[in-house]
């Protein structure tokens, strides 16, 4: 996406982007409650193309919309680990996140990355090494847009998903 296309994209939220953000932000907290079952484990939310957090028209995108919901939940805000990645917008998202939540809202500090998802050895290693086991440390939602990553390592993605569902 060119810089001009990116600016146009972030100028105002399209209806389909709003629906996608609402689906994730409504689903994930409920998912956490279902899989927790009183175990007290932590939860992870990983967004590989997190964007800016909000559009020029003031509408929130998925990271801030989800964080708003989690921030109001006294239990989940102690358990969540956010991991946000965006090659071009991570500094804008960091600022928007910090302006909205400060440093004390969530018990665990968000993780930030500015990797090219299709080329990053860091992301490839994470998919293949960390999750190439039979043990899942924490229930995790990987927010993955299949239309956004033409060159992603699909074997790595499969390895990431492997421990779930066993």
* CATH fold group: Rossmann fold
**Tally of separate domains:** 1
Q: Work out the helix count.
A: 7
What number is the mean pLDDT? Answer: 84
Rounded to the nearest angstrom, the radius of gyration is 16 Å
Terminal CA distance: 38 Å
Extended strand count? 4
Strand order, largest beta sheet:
3-2-1-4
Strand content: 5-15%
| Helix share bin | 40-55%
Oligomer: single chain
Class inferred from helices and paired strands: alpha/beta
Which descriptor suits the 3D outline? globular
> What top-tier CATH class fits best?
Alpha Beta
Low-confidence stretches: none
What does the largest sheet look like?
Answer: 4 strands, parallel
The CATH architecture would be: 3-Layer(aba) Sandwich
What sequence of helices (H) and strands (E) makes up the elements? HHEHHEHEHEH
Give an account of the 3D structure.
By secondary structure, the chain is an alpha/beta fold. It has a single domain, classed as Rossmann fold, CATH 3.40.50. Helix content is 45%, strand content 11%. It has a four-stranded parallel beta sheet. Helix 2 runs parallel beside helix 3. The longest helix has 22 residues. It is globular. It starts with a helix and ends in a 5-residue tail after the last helix. The model has no long low-confidence stretch (mean pLDDT 84).
